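Students often ask why inverse folding is considered easier than folding. One informal answer: many sequences map to the same fold, so there is more than one right answer. In these notes we will look at a single instance of the problem. The structure comes first.
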């Protein structure tokens, strides 16, 4: 019955001037595959679980290629240098000097979207720091109840339960924003190849002014956690880019 209906629809469309009909697009396989991915963890998801799972599946399919798939991303690269061999360098990894970080050019101001992402990352750092044993003064200096600048747009979208995510104080956000500017002003390749990137970034960041309480070394804890997190994020992007390039070449 279904096959007969599709043939009749095809005949009707072709008679009206259409050159071809993609009959495979009439199926719901894509929709069923999406639902099966959503129901992997919970066969009967709640609205919040469905929202989270659908977002994860959608974003994941756009950002990465399925490892078990039989295709690669089409980057439209030319294959003129396909057989060219690259000489490997055995020289020791470079060392980042503190003078390079001090003399780095200042990057442009952050966009609203970048500020929202950075605000969300700052909240994560605050959560990790607060998990340590801190006094009430330190805890109150790290968080705020509301943000009037509009930087918490992304945080509110990711917050299924009101108050579940931490909102960093203006002092913490300003500090992390300065560290991010320092990171962006430095060559990422030189940082990832260096053996002392964390130490040099921490040393340069500790020169930044901060009014945070000094009883529990909050500035050092925040800077150390954010710098290590930022380097991990950068390394993941570099590894993913190299993996995509290797996949296209192979």
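Output (designed amino acids):
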């Amino acid at each position: 019955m279904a096959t007969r209906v599709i043939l009749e629809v095809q005949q009707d469309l072709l008679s009206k001037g259409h050159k071809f009909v993609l009959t495979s697009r009439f199926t719901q396989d894509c929709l069923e595959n999406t639902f099966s991915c959503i129901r992997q963890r919970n066969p009967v998801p709640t609205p919040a679980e469905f929202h989270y799972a659908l977002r994860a599946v959608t974003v994941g399919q756009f950002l990465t290629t399925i490892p078990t798939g039989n295709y690669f991303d089409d980057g439209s690269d030319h294959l003129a240098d396909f057989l060219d061999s690259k000489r490997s360098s055995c020289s020791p990894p470079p060392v980042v000097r503190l003078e390079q970080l001090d003399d780095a050019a200042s990057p442009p101001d952050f966009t609203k979207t970048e500020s929202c992402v950075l605000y969300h990352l700052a909240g994560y750092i605050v959560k990790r720091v607060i998990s340590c044993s801190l006094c009430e003064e330190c805890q109150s200096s790290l968080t705020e109840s509301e943000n009037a600048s509009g930087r918490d747009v992304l945080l509110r979208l990711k917050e299924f339960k009101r108050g579940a995510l931490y909102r960093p104080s203006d002092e913490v956000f300003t500090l992390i924003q300065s560290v991010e500017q320092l990171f962006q002003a430095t060559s990422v390749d030189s940082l990832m190849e260096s053996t002392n990137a964390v130490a040099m970034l921490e040393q340069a960041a500790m020169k930044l002014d901060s009014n945070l309480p000094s009883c529990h070394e909050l500035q050092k804890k925040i800077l150390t956690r954010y710098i290590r997190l930022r380097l991990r994020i950068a390394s993941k992007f570099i590894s993913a880019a190299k993996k995509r390039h290797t996949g296209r070449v192979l």
